[in-house]
């Protein structure tokens, strides 16, 4: 019988492309991955990998195994969920990927709820860019992802990820305090000012640039950082303006002045979980805690 652990390595190679990336993702050495895949070839009795320059590629027979391995992993995950549901207490580890503003606004209260109501559940959190986190939840690196979607900019969809809206928040122009910027009352008023945005490639950067271009100007992005707390400091200190979602202000007051944007754009924050694990009690408990905290926060923000 074929070894499930070796089959998973083959699937990881199909997803990630190189032995080195598989090794890094699973904390193996590349040579160990290669040895395990060679052993799988002997078990299967067919060639699974062929050379393509310095890389390896999967044979048609390997592709068959990869497809069946995905089905097998789903079945095993559902079995684990059913087993956990049969217990009288909610236990286990839940691995969560979350982007920064949601981590700041939601996670402290969510973790407090989990400690009080489900003390036997261990929650592990990693801050991650949503697009990568969605992919890695699909590949089983994480159990739950809290991700975001900007207006007219669809977040990536992956097969069998159960997606549920968590909260929406308004996006506004954050303007430095003080008389120097008192005349800024619209997006167009900020056309000559320095801007801070996330680095190129981020959904918020693409959306923000397009918003400014539709308003008739190219933003002077002098500062690029994925750290929204750093962005707020640049605005508060008078060095830049920025497009900020309201969740960034959920933790307290800020001296920044917030200017409404045309059409009142809103960002959507959502959770995604693999369909094969969505009924696992620990994951259900965490999603419920996220939704309760988000609902309370939304009521305060409205």
From TrEMBL:
InterPro entries: LysR_HTH_N, LysR_subst-bd, WH-like_DNA-bd_sf, WH_DNA-bd_sf. It holds the Pfam family LysR_substrate. Residues 2-59 form the HTH lysR-type domain. Keywords: DNA-binding, Transcription, Transcription regulation. The keyword Nucleotide-binding does not apply. Gene3D superfamilies: Periplasmic binding protein-like II (3.40.190.10), Winged helix-like DNA-binding domain superfamily/Winged helix DNA-binding domain (1.10.10.10). Coiled coil: none annotated. PANTHER family: LYSR SUBSTRATE-BINDING, TRANSCRIPTIONAL DUAL REGULATOR HCAR-RELATED. Belongs to the LysR transcriptional regulatory family. This is LysR family transcriptional regulator. The lineage of its organism: Bacteria, Bacillati, Actinomycetota, Actinomycetes, Micrococcales.
């Amino acid at each position: 019988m074929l070894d499930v652990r070796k089959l998973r390595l083959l699937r990881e190679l199909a997803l990630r492309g190189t032995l080195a990336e598989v090794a890094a993702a699973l904390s193996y050495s590349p040579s160990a991955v290669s040895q395990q895949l060679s052993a799988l070839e002997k078990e299967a009795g067919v060639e699974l990998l062929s050379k393509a320059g310095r890389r390896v590629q999967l044979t048609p027979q390997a592709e068959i195994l990869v497809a069946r391995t995905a089905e097998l992993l789903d079945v095993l995950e559902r079995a684990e969920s059913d087993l956990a549901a049969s217990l009288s207490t909610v236990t286990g580890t839940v691995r969560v990927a979350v982007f920064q503003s949601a981590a700041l606004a939601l996670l402290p209260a969510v973790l407090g709820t989990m400690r009080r109501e489900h003390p036997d559940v261990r929650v592990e959190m990693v801050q991650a860019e949503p697009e990568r986190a969605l992919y890695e939840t699909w590949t089983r690196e994480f159990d739950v992802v809290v991700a975001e979607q900007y207006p007219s900019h669809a977040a990536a969809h992956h097969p069998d990820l159960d997606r549920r809206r968590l909260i929406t928040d308004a996006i506004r122009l954050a303007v430095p305090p003080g008389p120097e910027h008192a005349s800024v009352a619209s997006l167009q008023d900020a056309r000559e000012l320095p801007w801070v945005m996330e680095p190129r490639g981020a959904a918020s950067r693409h959306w923000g640039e397009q918003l400014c271009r539709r308003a008739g100007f190219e933003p002077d992005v002098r500062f690029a950082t994925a750290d929204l707390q750093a962005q707020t400091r640049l605005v508060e200190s008078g060095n830049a303006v920025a497009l900020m979602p309201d969740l960034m202000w959920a933790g307290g007051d800020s001296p920044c002045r917030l200017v409404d944007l045309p059409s009142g754009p809103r960002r959507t924050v959502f959770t995604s979980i693999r369909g094969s694990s969505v009924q696992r009690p620990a994951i259900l408990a965490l999603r419920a805690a996220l939704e309760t905290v988000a609902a309370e926060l939304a009521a305060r923000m409205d």
